[in-house]
């Protein structure tokens, strides 16, 4: 991965410094085989000029691996016309890349500079190039592996500045403005190849960059490399190959080829040396790599539902037909039952959440409530954690008065008051709570106190299989889980239907067809933007009523062998409810 480049980077911020140092260590630079893959696919698409100079750029050059691979993929007959440019804010990276490229290609014109690419782009946009007296010529080839630095690490001021400068909204990552910057230096008939995190494809925070990509580029092809672990970085990588946006809008960005490769436990059809060879196999092939891991390869086209900001889905004829059957048998979605929320957040858990309240000298405070966490996760009905330290209670200082959430009057709860006063300095250090007009002892995200007593579905954020359970104990849900209850009490029966759907193998297939946002080892993210789209069959049908009654019985007798047996029957009923007579992959 290339080293970090950032406009007005907060150099004194230790968080930023640590991230920058990690990227400069060389451990996360782009491996040669990955660099070669990107370079080869760029060369296949580009139409280089027959005469004159050919300009090539890596805007975050790092150790020069991407430029090295790209030069090697170009015909040697045009090497004498190449001009190679690389930018990086780190002087050490500049020295490493310069030495590498001049040694490997001594006859080429190589210019690697200690330059901040984002400042460079902003100067061009303002017609005030800080580095030259004229607007630079565009580049025919731009290859890049921009830095991945999240909003939290950039800091609010830095993120806001980049958002405003590049017309982005919401949470951004540093690679977002990098990609937009490339569009401003790419020749009209040029080609770019970019390695990015795949998060922008399938998260709400990526909607601005998705819109910008479709507006500023003519995307030719994209690959989602999923959990292949192609290089040592926490992100799951993707690759985009695109041309400058020269065609009319009705011709651009239609039928964009999209491929994905994700680890699976399914039996393999064929063997391959690595993920790049595996991707040459036909759609829906399961390939075993030389290290024993198995991956499912999918090939199709990009489907965003016609919305420039829509999530990117890999569409095939099979998956489209599958989803059409689901749609035809869908009555409503989960979002129409109730609002899905993340659990409470105190921002001072050591004060509010404990498992040893009984050991306090004055005894437990009056405001304690039961707390469910990911340690309770079990399908249909919560499991009591085997480790006592994971059974915790939360001091919950909120109530409803005249229909509105309010902080409790602490004087009515002397034990709670005394305990919180002992930790007042810690709680008042949360200045953002007080600045928001809240009392010093409040939770940061408490939700509606009246909602906790209602039956609610609870589920963890990340798991390889869906794990949803019904809480009927009035528990409060911790921030590592999500939950929702019926907005209308008369529709609480729909929660039982949702519980059956959410725990089915059908919903695993639905998730993979519709979103396919997986982390390492096949784990899925069950977050609001996905779960709210889960479908519900018509509750008035007899087969749906049977699903509801069976779900209630399973909940009542869990855990037991009978519950497991009924869950298998229920699973097949769910498939049938959506017009899918048997489980399919």
Structural summary, described in words:
This protein folds into four domains: 14-254, Vaccinia Virus protein VP39 (Rossmann fold); 255-315, no CATH class; 325-337 and 488-585, no CATH class; 339-485, Adenine-n6-DNA-methyltransferase TaqI, Chain A, domain 2 (Alpha-Beta Complex), CATH 3.90.220. The chain is 33% helix and 21% strand. The chain contains 21 helices and 26 strands. The strands form six sheets. Strands 1, 2, 3, 4, 5, 6, 7, 8, 9, 10, 11 and 12 form a twelve-stranded mixed sheet that branches. A four-stranded antiparallel sheet has the order 14-24-20-22, covered by helices on one side. Helix 5 crosses helix 8 (175-183). The longest helix is centred in the last third of the chain and has 17 residues, at 561-577. The protein is globular, with a radius of gyration of 27 Å. The two termini are 35 Å apart. The model is unreliable at 1-27 and 128-133 (pLDDT under 50).
Topology diagram in text:
Elements: H1 14-24, H2 32-45, E1 54-58, H3 65-73, E2 82-88, H4 91-104, E3 109-114, H5 117-125, E4 139-144, H6 151-154, H7 156-166, H8 175-183, E5 186-197, H9 199-202, H10 207-216, E6 217-224, E7 237-244, E8 257-263, E9 270-272, H11 275-278, E10 285-289, E11 294-303, E12 313-315, H12 317-328, E13 332-333, E14 341-342, H13 349-352, E15 353-354, E16 368-372, E17 393-395, E18 398-401, E19 404-407, H14 414-422, H15 424-428, H16 431-435, E20 456-460, E21 462-463, E22 469-471, E23 476-477, E24 481-484, H17 493-502, H18 505-514, E25 524-525, H19 528-531, E26 535-536, H20 542-557, H21 561-577
């Amino acid at each position: 991965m290339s080293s970090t480049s950032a406009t007005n980077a907060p150099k004194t911020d230790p968080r930023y410094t640590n991230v920058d140092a990690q990227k400069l260590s060389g451990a996360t630079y782009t491996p040669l085989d990955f660099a070669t893959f990107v370079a080869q696919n760029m060369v296949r698409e580009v139409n280089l000029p027959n005469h004159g100079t050919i300009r090539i750029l890596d805007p975050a050059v790092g150790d020069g691996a991407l430029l090295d691979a790209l030069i090697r993929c170009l015909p040697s007959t045009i090497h004498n016309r190449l001009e190679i440019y690389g930018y990086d804010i780190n002087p050490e990276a500049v020295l490493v890349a310069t030495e590498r490229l001049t040694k490997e290609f001594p006859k080429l014109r190589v210019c690697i500079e200690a330059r901040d690419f984002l400042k460079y782009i902003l100067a061009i946009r303002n017609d005030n190039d800080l580095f030259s007296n004229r607007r630079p010529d565009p580049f025919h080839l731009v290859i890049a592996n921009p830095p991945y630095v999240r909003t939290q690490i950039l800091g609010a001021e830095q993120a806001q500045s980049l958002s405003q400068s590049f017309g982005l909204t919401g949470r951004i990552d540093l690679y977002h403005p990098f990609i937009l910057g490339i569009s401003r230096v790419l020749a009209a008939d040029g080609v770019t190849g970019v390695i990015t995190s795949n998060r922008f494809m399938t998260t709400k925070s990526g909607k601005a960059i998705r819109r910008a990509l479709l507006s500023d580029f003519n995307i030719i092809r994209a690959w989602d490399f999923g959990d292949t672990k192609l290089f040592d970085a926490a992100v799951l990588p993707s690759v985009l190959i695109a041309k400058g946006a020269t065609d009319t809008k009705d011709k651009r960005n239609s039928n964009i080829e999209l491929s994905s490769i994700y680890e699976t436990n399914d039996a393999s059809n064929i063997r391959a040396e690595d993920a790049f060879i595996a991707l040459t196999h036909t759609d829906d092939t399961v390939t075993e790599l030389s290290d024993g891991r198995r991956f499912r390869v999918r090939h199709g086209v990009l489907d965003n539902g016609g919305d420039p900001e829509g999530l990117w889905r890999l569409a095939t004829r099979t998956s489209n037909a599958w989803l059409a059957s689901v749609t035809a048998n869908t009555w409503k979605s989960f979002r129409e039952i109730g609002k899905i929320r993340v659990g409470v957040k105190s921002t001072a858990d050591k004060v509010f959440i404990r498992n040893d309240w009984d050991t306090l000298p004055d005894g437990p405070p009056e405001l304690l409530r039961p707390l469910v966490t990911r340690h309770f996760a079990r399908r249909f009905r919560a499991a009591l954690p085997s480790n006592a330290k994971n059974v915790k209670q939360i001091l919950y200082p909120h109530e409803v008065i005249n229909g509105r959430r309010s902080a409790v009057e602490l004087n009515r709860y002397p034990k709670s008051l005394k305990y919180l006063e002992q930790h007042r300095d810690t709680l008042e250090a949360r200045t953002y709570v007080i600045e928001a007009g809240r009392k010093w002892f409040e939770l940061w995200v408490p939700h509606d106190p009246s909602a906790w007593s209602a039956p609610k579905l609870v589920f963890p954020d990340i798991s390889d299989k869906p794990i949803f359970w019904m809480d009927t104990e009035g528990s409060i849900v911790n921030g590592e889980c999500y939950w929702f209850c019926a907005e209308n009490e008369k529709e609480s029966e729909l929660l039982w239907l949702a519980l059956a759907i959410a725990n089915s193998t059908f919903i695993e297939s639905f998730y993979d067809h519709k979103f396919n946002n997986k982390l390492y080892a096949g784990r899925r993210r069950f977050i609001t933007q996905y779960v709210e789209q889960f479908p519900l069959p018509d509750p008035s049908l007899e087969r749906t009523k049977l699903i509801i009654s069976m779900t209630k019985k399973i909940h009542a007798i869990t855990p037991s062998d009978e519950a497991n047996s009924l869950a298998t029957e229920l699973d097949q009923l769910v498939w049938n409810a959506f017009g899918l007579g048997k489980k399919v992959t």
